[in-house]
Each structure stands twice: as C-alpha cells, then as structure tokens.
Structure prediction request, 112 residues.
Amino acid sequence: MELQRIAHALDAEFICGPDDWEKINIETVFASDLMSDVLMSDRDELLLITSLSTEQSIRSAGIVGSEAIVIANNKTVTEGMIELAQDQDVALFCTSHPKYEACVRLGRIMEP
Prediction:
C-alpha cells in the first residue's frame, strides 16, 4: 500500500522524507514504544508507529530498514529527530491519534 494512502488514513502531518515519499510501498506495520522489540523486526517495507518521540526511535527504525515512522499521540518531533530521519532517508510523520487508534485505522484499510 502506498504511504500517501496510509498518511491520509492517519490524518498524519508530513515532517520530512524523500521526494517521492508518497509512492513508498508499505507492507508491514509495527507499533511499539519498546525499541528493543523494534530491533527484532526483520520485515521489509516497514512502517513504524510509536509514541516515543526521541532520536532513539529514528535510529532504531533506521537499523531495521523502516521506510517511514509515524509519531503518535500528537508528540513533539524534535529537530534532532528530523535531522536523523533526513540522514537515514526515512519518511517522518506525526499524528494526533493514539497509537492504538492508528493501528485500527490502518488495519481497516490494509485488509484484503
């Protein structure tokens, strides 16, 4: 599923990312605030949803090759997070929706 459709479903605000972020394909969604759990992921075309608004969430997403990150719960995105996301060429978004609601919304649109 294209990232643009996911961002729309989450009412997510685009913060930064590659020029063609709209066309990035997402097949797997991983929602967690425990970056140790995120580091265990071995999926491709991954979207990370977290309410952990720290640079560590960006680093962890980069390690597992996440295509995009959505910061949930209307948390503040710092300049350090933006710089890291740009360096790692990861699309970064924020949404006011809680993490659980974001997952429910994505589950509805990703069902076959």
About this structure: Residues 3-110 form a domain with the Udp-n-acetylmuramoylalanyl-d-glutamate--2,6- Diaminopimelate Ligase; Chain: A, domain 1 fold (CATH 3.40.1390.20). The longest helix spans residues 99-110. The longest strand covers residues 46-50.
